[in-house]
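QUALITY CONTROL LOG
STEP: pairwise intake check
CHECKER ROLE: data steward
CRITERIA: each record must contain a sequence immediately followed by its structure tokens, with no blank fields

ENTRY 1 OF 2
RESULT FIELD BELOW
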Amino acid sequence: MRLYLLRHGEITSHRGDVPITAAAEEQAFSVGQGFGLRELGPITMLSGETRRAMDTAAHLARGIIDTGGIVIGPKVAFALRNPDLYLAGVRVNMVSSADALAEQVDGLSAEDVASLGFFPTFFDSPDRIGWWLAHPSPPGEDARSVASRVESFAGSLVDRIPNRPEVVVALTHSPLLRAVASDSLGHDIGEPPWVSGLLMVVDDDRNTTVEVFDPGAG
């Protein structure tokens, strides 16, 4: 079983649930064409629940179909979500500003964020995802927890379902990709380029091997 974990396409802002750009639509379509030519059998297409992940999956699927390939999906897979972080009992998204964080929690103002231990430093970091990746106790999932979540998800793909494709292409987010790479490869790969990421190969015993995957290489 081969699971391609790819970062979503280009966006102009991380504020809100925004669509990908027109250039990203073209890139995803082109990457899909590459998959359609590379993989001879049907491909299962999955994504996280954000618009940028779903949009990228849809255009990538179009590219596969354009080459005559067969796509199952796209469908949303809960395991592909961003890390679960919590504030006052609310799951909050990894946003880039105090204003965007405050909008997610009733009764919280942007000024209130200044009194919170984790998030002010997170916002000020030049590499917010890298800072979370190295943090020993974030308010929610740490990098190892996210990697374990993805490994369990990947292992489940070998459960026998008749006629299920052996190739899965999944559109997700950079925190998830960096967490998996750090855990499996032993180092942080940094922010992956748009619509690139990792290849996880899963054997029948649910063991996984991971390598960096660039759809434009070769």
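ENTRY 2 OF 2
RESULT FIELD BELOW
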Amino acid sequence: MPTYLSRRTVLAGAASTLLIPNSAFAVGRKRLFKVYRGGSEVGRHSVEATAAGDRLTVKVKVDLAVKILGITAYRYTHRNSEEWVAGALHTLTSDTDDDGDKAYVRLTRGDSSFEIDAAGYTGDLSLEAAPTSYWNHRALEAPVWFSTQSGTPLDVNIQKAGEEAGLSRWSVTGEAAIDLFYDDQNEWRGSRFDGKGEEITYEEVESGPKFLALL
């Protein structure tokens, strides 16, 4: 099923808590999408996770380029790395180039809060906050989100909005506006977003074994 995403929130869902198996060896999963804008391919978006023991590493990679008459009119790159230990987010590092506008996030876990140094916010944030990487269904339970692009805390309202093509659709409104799609095993399968009047669609080209089997 095609799914949709805006150019400025091409990021992937996680929550403040999750269970990680105590495996003695590294196990990995990858989800890869082609990204289309108006029917033309504009890039790729991947989310890759590796689990070893009680540590889970999740890496998000986004590369987009919109071309007009063969000339690149818009370019977006995003790199995000999350480290989870014993079920808790411990660090998050991201760097983004939004057509020349640079942004970053440097997050570490403290005793009672996250400490963030980022392009859009510097300070403390509740340990219950979820990053906007969307890969984990439990982000839907978090009381607040923060942008993995800018670090900005986001006040959101989240409601289940029915089903489309066999996938559960969750509607996010407030300081983030996006539809998120998950399958019956809570695997993230894509998003839909108004990209300033343009629909940007996802086509899944690689998923392998169930992504959340690591959790």
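INTAKE CHECK: passed for both entries
DESCRIPTIVE NOTE, ENTRY 2: The first strand starts at residue 3 and ends at 4.
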